[in-house]
């Protein structure tokens, strides 16, 4: 049994071989008919990757992905979007680059713990910023004067909270006023149209130094063939290119061609279908658990592919233990609260990017566990 202080990915490892894995946030639902056709064409994509210059395929993949999600002002010129093997690799590069210039980062709380771990692992000091103040009024001047970067996950994992356009504008203006970097992790943006306004237009207009990490890996069930995209403002002032080149040369053209094709399929109806599918899965989870005493859903507005369930009487770790006896693996929420794990004690996070049948069976068993007290 894992210690309750194990990180979230260690908990996710335990679930990987179970048919009832509702732990990690990677996409594991069955392929749609349109996506199946693309996978059937994999030998053609491989041949294309051998034949065409990788830069062309990469540009097409970027254009298809950013356009799909409304990010029309992304910097398309050479080198501004750095393709990485995953968003964690992009995060490691950004963290190492930040550590060269910055001592302290204000980071949204809660959020996925590997963001905090990679920043801290590179020697950065972290100050937690709770979601309510972050999404509310201006951030205090004293806070901004004491950090070199503000880091926000939007939509956030696990809460689904989205930084709206006006709020992003004001935050970026404040960062410009204090000459600090605004960094965003938008890995879950594909799921929520409220995150499809043109962030790059807002960031550029503010004049602040900014960095954004995008992620193709949460949306489509591509067996973890994915890319993280690290995008930086023109005068970012961090050694990201050098650190990128310390770590990798580039992402496989096969993966880039696959991303381009999945993005095209999403643009011609696949994305709307995916949104409907996730909303249907969320409804299944809520319907199965809603009537249980002491159980509620802390993120009623979330549209991302994860859903938190809160309960009274037992900790998330205790419910996890009872659940894994039925071979169901969810994710206890302590570690999302990287500065105060006790805040996440009475919650589990459920992954919704799963086929309907195993998800329904998993929440049926979760309901039985929560009822058996
Ligand atoms: C917000 C966020 N960013 C980054 C990551 C890391 O993604 P990956 O495991 O593909 O590197 C995750 C993982 O779930 C995440 O939730």
Describe what you observe in this structure.
This protein is of the alpha/beta class. The protein has 2 domains: 8-31 and 269-371, Aspartate Aminotransferase, domain 1, CATH 3.90.1150.10; 33-263, Type I PLP-dependent aspartate aminotransferase-like (Major domain) (Aspartate Aminotransferase, domain 2). Helices cover 44% and strands 14% of the residues. It has 14 helices and 12 strands. The strands form 3 sheets. The chain has a 7-stranded mixed beta sheet, sandwiched between helices. Helix 6 (113-121) links the parallel strand 3 (104-109) and strand 4. The longest helix has 37 residues, at 253-289. The chain is globular, with a radius of gyration of 20 Å. The model has no long low-confidence stretch (mean pLDDT 95). The site of pyridoxal-5'-phosphate has 11 residues, from helix 5.
């Amino acid at each position: 049994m894992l210690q309750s202080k194990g990180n979230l990915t260690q908990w996710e490892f335990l679930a990987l071989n179970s048919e009832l894995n509702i732990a990690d946030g990677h996409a594991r639902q069955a392929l749609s008919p349109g996506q199946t056709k693309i996978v059937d064409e994999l030998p053609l994509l491989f041949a294309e990757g051998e034949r065409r210059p990788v830069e062309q395929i990469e540009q097409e993949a970027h254009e298809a992905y950013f356009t799909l999600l409304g990010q029309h002002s992304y910097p398309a010129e050479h080198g501004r979007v750095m393709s990485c093997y995953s968003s964690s690799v992009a995060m490691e590069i950004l963290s190492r680059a930040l550590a060269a210039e910055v001592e302290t980062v204000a980071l949204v709380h809660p959020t996925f713990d590997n963001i905090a771990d990679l920043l801290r692992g590179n020697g950065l000091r972290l100050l937690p910023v709770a979601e309510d103040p972050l999404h509310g009024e201006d951030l205090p001047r004293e806070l901004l004067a004491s950090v070199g970067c503000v880091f926000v996950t939007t939509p956030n994992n696990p809460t689904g909270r989205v930084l709206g356009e006006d709020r992003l504008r004001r935050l970026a203006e404040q960062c410009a006023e204090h000459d600090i970097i605004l960094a965003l992790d938008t890995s879950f943006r594909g799921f929520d149209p409220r995150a499809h306004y043109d962030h790059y237009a807002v960031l550029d207009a503010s004049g602040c130094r900014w960095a954004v990490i995008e992620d193709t890996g949460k949306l489509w069930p591509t067996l973890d063939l994915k890319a993280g995209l690290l995008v930086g403002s023109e005068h970012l002032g961090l050694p990201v290119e050098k650190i990128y080149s310390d770590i990798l040369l580039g992402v496989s053209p096969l993966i880039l061609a696959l991303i381009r094709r999945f993005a095209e399929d999403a643009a011609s109806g696949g994305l709307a279908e995916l949104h409907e599918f996730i909303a249907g899965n969320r409804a299944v989870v809520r319907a199965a658990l809603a009537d249980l005493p002491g159980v509620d859903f802390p993120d009623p507005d979330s549209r991302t592919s994860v859903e938190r369930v809160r309960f009274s009487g037992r900790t998330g770790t205790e419910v996890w233990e009872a659940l894994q006896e039925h071979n169901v693996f969810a994710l206890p929420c302590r570690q999302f609260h990287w500065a105060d794990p006790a805040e996440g004690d009475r919650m589990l996070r459920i992954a919704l990017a799963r086929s309907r049948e195993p998800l329904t069976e998993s929440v049926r068993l979760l309901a039985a566990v929560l009822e058996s007290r």
